[in-house]
Amino acid sequence: MALVEIARFTDVYEADLAAAFLASHDVEVSVTERFQTTVDPLMQRALGIRLMAPASQAAMARDLLARARSGEFAEADEDDLPDATPLARGVGGALAVAAWATGGFWGSSLPRRLRPLAWQGMLLSALLVVAVMLAVFLIGKVLLDPPRG
Questions:
Q1: SS3 of 53, please?
Q2: Do 47 and 5 meet the contact criterion of CB atoms below 8 Å apart?
Q3: H helix or E strand, kind and range, residue 88
Q4: For residue 53, how many other CB atoms are within 10 A of its CB?
Q5: Nearest C-alpha neighbor of 62 from the set 75, 51, 72
Q6: CA max distance for the chain
Q7: Global pTM?
Q8: Which of 17, 46, 43, 45 minimizes the C-alpha distance to 31?
Q9: Are 33 and 10 in contact, with CB atoms under 8 Å apart?
Q10: Cα(18)–Cα(68) distance, rounded to whole angstroms?
Q11: Which end of the chain is more exposed for a tag (fewer CB within 10 A), N or C?
Q12: Which residues pair with residue 51 across a beta bridge?
């Protein structure tokens, strides 16, 4: 059985997806150069990744790939998640602001021992704590000892 080139791809993942698509339609395919190009990814662009199939199935494989590229097998892209309610959006926004204000976004993704001290986040957190304490004190004072006048 002689193998012929069906298509050539510049990305190994795209070639694997095309091979899986053809295999699901009972076309025997093989992805060549997969191992060479994954060892040295620059070779993907230089060599390309060939999709090979038996000569007896070549026409059907090329036709299936052309139909797939034209979108014939595409399904409606529906979002199965419900729309967020205004309450959920508000709570999410408040949590993001709270995380930012309390230093949830301090520093970088480096390990703790390597990252610099994020003094700006700590300063903002300290100011927020002082502001909350002051607000609680003032509200408590107004509620417990209302001004007389």
A1: strand
A2: no
A3: helix 86-101
A4: 23
A5: 51
A6: 102
A7: 0.50
A8: 17
A9: no
A10: 9
A11: C
A12: 7, 31
